[in-house]
Amino acid sequence: MALFYILAGTNHFLNPGFYLKIIPHWLQGHRWINYFSGLCEIIFGFLLLFSFSRKTAAWLIIVLLLAVFPANIQMMLDYWNSGNEFLWVTLIRLPVQGLLIWWAWVYTKN
Predict the structure, then answer these.
(1) Disulfide engineering: 2 pairs with which of 16, 42, 48, 78, CB 3.0-4.6 Å?
(2) Are 68 and 61 in contact (CB under 8 A)?
(3) Average pLDDT in the 60-68 region?
(4) How far is CA 67 from CA 35, 62, 81, 83, in A?
(5) If we measure between CA atoms, which residue out of 44, 39, 49 comes closest to residue 19?
(6) 16 vs 28: CA distance, rounded Å
(7) Structure confidence at residue 51 (pLDDT)
(8) Residue 22: what pLDDT?
(9) Residue 94 confidence (pLDDT) above 80
(10) Half-sphere exposure (Cβ direction) of 103: Cα atoms closer than 13 Å
(11) Has residue 3 got a pLDDT over 90?
(12) What is the pLDDT, as a whole number, of residue 73?
């Protein structure tokens, strides 16, 4: 799981355009939000590597996943409104967020 979040966070810096498009339109500072969430993923991923910080990191990941969930909804709505052929991917992504939360929750246990 640590590698997953470190790589995902790094991708915010390598491919910011993808993330900038899905940040809800009503939020300000899209570029800052993108880089901050990517940095959080990287830091939390590294914190998962150590037993003394693993539980805290898992809870922080859960909070982060809940915080970015509106971006997944925004992406689904944008795809729906534009008739994007990949709408199905965004519909699958919504429950996958729940699986990612569960996966992190597993790491909150001793």
Answers:
(1) 48
(2) no
(3) 96
(4) 14, 9, 23, 26
(5) 39
(6) 16
(7) 95
(8) 86
(9) yes
(10) 13
(11) yes
(12) 92
Question: From CA 104, how far away is CA 110, in angstroms rounded?
Answer: 13
Whether 110 has a pLDDT exceeding 80, the answer reads no
Please report, as a single letter, which amino acid is at residue 102. Answer: W
Contact 96, 78 (CB under 8 A): no
Nearest to 71 by CA among 104, 46, 42, 41: 41
* Secondary structure of the chain in HEC code, one letter for each residue: CHHHHHHHHHHHHHCHHHHHHHCCCCCCCHHHHHHHHHHHHHHHHHHHCCHHHHHHHHHHHHHHHHHHHHHHHHHHHHHHHHCCCCHHHHHHHHHHHHHHHHHHHHCCCC
pLDDT in tens, 27-46: 999 999 999 999 999 999 99
Residue bearing tokens 């909070």: 63
Question: In this structure, what token pair is assigned to residue 32?
Answer: 């800052």
